[in-house]
From TrEMBL:
<comment type="pathway">
    <text>Aromatic compound metabolism; 3-phenylpropanoate degradation.</text>
</comment>
<comment type="similarity">
    <text>Belongs to the LigB/MhpB extradiol dioxygenase family.</text>
</comment>
<keyword id="KW-0223">Dioxygenase</keyword>
<dbReference type="Pfam" id="PF02900">
    <property type="entry name" value="LigB"/>
</dbReference>
<dbReference type="InterPro" id="IPR023789">
    <property type="entry name" value="DHPP/DHXA_dioxygenase"/>
</dbReference>
<keyword id="KW-0058">Aromatic hydrocarbons catabolism</keyword>
<feature type="domain" description="Extradiol ring-cleavage dioxygenase class III enzyme subunit B">
    <location>
        <begin position="8"/>
        <end position="305"/>
    </location>
</feature>
<feature type="active site" description="Proton donor">
    <location>
        <position position="116"/>
    </location>
</feature>
<comment type="function">
    <text>Catalyzes the non-heme iron(II)-dependent oxidative cleavage of 2,3-dihydroxyphenylpropionic acid and 2,3-dihydroxicinnamic acid into 2-hydroxy-6-ketononadienedioate and 2-hydroxy-6-ketononatrienedioate, respectively.</text>
</comment>
<dbReference type="GO" id="GO:0047070">
    <property type="term" value="F:3-carboxyethylcatechol 2,3-dioxygenase activity"/>
</dbReference>
<feature type="active site" description="Proton acceptor">
    <location>
        <position position="180"/>
    </location>
</feature>
<protein>
    <recommendedName>
        <fullName>2,3-dihydroxyphenylpropionate/2,3-dihydroxicinnamic acid 1,2-dioxygenase</fullName>
        <ecNumber>1.13.11.16</ecNumber>
    </recommendedName>
</protein>
<dbReference type="GO" id="GO:0008198">
    <property type="term" value="F:ferrous iron binding"/>
</dbReference>
<keyword id="KW-0560">Oxidoreductase</keyword>
<comment type="subunit">
    <text>Homotetramer.</text>
</comment>
<keyword id="KW-0408">Iron</keyword>
<dbReference type="GO" id="GO:0019380">
    <property type="term" value="P:3-phenylpropionate catabolic process"/>
</dbReference>
């Protein structure tokens, strides 16, 4: 039987680019340093990371609800590292077969580009893209329409069942969320140039990437003020959601209403789908699990309801 530990963390590409006050930066730095020390102590033999993509690797020319990578390269957006991740190809393929055998459809990429949604948390928890073997599983959380939350639970459970039989120390990471709405465009109603980007905008020019990043930084400077038309952070919603996970009430998430969450907590809140998958993977092999909330703070400068949960 494997020894499985999990961590879910918000991510934000604005870390180091539009920081809040230094005491908040120091507080988050210390939370991350502690989590990383725990990971190092655990010394995982395998990491599985459930992550979203933000129109860097996956576009509407073919948008899969779930995709497992047998090889992955970081695009190095914002301040993240560029380069290949250490993906164990055969094991990733075996996991994909196992998931398909559980009646779940998952796409397979033999050359996936991943962005800060995957790499920031991997870097924060391990200091590198390559220190440990890692299998990325991307869950569409940013490009509507989305499947229901109960499908995410089933995906997580299948992954947990697969990992349980490996007899390894396995760390599962979930990255993204909580409440937030960065200026990521929507396909519906988009002008032609934006629609073209959302459909097939892979490998943008350095100028296009810089312009995108400048737009996000500008949005961060006014987020949460009356000048911003983006849905603000929602601390009540964030705490409600984290409590459900910590208390093991995963069945209550099955019927989450997608449109309602977008309106209440922001369109990118659906990155919590990665947290749901992570906790469901653990719940499939350990009931009851033991979970704790390590941190929470709403941070407008980072466009992030910023939280950290751990469980085993
Ligand atoms: O995709 C982008 O360019 C920006 C994404 C973003 C911005 C702020 C908070 C986040 O969690 C993001 O993913
Ligand atoms: Fe994100």
């Amino acid at each position: 039987m494997s020894n499985i530990k999990i961590k879910c963390l918000s991510h934000t590409p604005l870390r180091g680019l539009n920081d809040p006050g230094s005491h908040v930066v120091a507080e988050v730095d210390s939370v991350i340093a502690k989590a990383r020390a725990e990971v190092e102590h655990f010394d995982p033999e395998l990491i599985v990371i459930f992550a979203p993509d933000h129109y860097n690797g996956l576009f509407y020319d073919l948008m899969p609800p779930f995709v497992i990578a047998t090889a992955a390269d970081s695009v190095g957006d914002y301040k993240t590292l560029l380069g290949a991740l250490s993906v164990p190809k055969e094991l990733a393929l075996e996991m994909a077969r196992f998931i398909l055998d559980k009646d779940l459809d998952i796409a397979i990429s033999h050359r996936l580009q991943v962005d800060h949604g995957c790499t920031q948390t991997l870097e924060e928890m391990t200091g590198s893209l390559t220190k440990y073997p890692v299998i990325p599983i991307i869950i569409n959380s940013v490009a509507p329409p989305f499947g229901p939350y109960r499908r995410i639970r089933k995906l997580g459970e299948a992954v947990g069942q697969f990992l349980a039989q490996l007899n390894k120390r396995v760390l599962i990471l979930g990255t993204g969320g909580l409440s937030h709405e960065p200026p990521v465009p929507l396909l519906s109603g988009a002008p032609d140039d934006i629609a073209n980007f959302l459909i097939a905008g892979r490998n943008p020019t350095p100028e296009a990437r810089a312009a995108r990043q400048a737009r996000t930084i500008a949005a961060g400077k006014i987020y949460g003020t009356s000048e911003s038309n983006l849905t603000p952070l929602n601390t009540d919603w964030d705490q409600y959601f984290m409590d459900l996970l910590v208390q093991g009430q995963l069945d209550e998430i099955d019927d989450f209403k997608i449109e309602e969450i977008s309106k209440t907590a922001g369109r990118s809140t659906h990155e919590i789908r990665t947290w749901v998958a992570t906790f469901s993977a653990l719940a499939a092999v350990k009931k009851p699990y033991s979970a704790r909330q390590d941190y929470y703070r709403p941070i407008n400068e980072w466009i992030a309801g910023y939280g950290v949960l751990s469980a085993e």
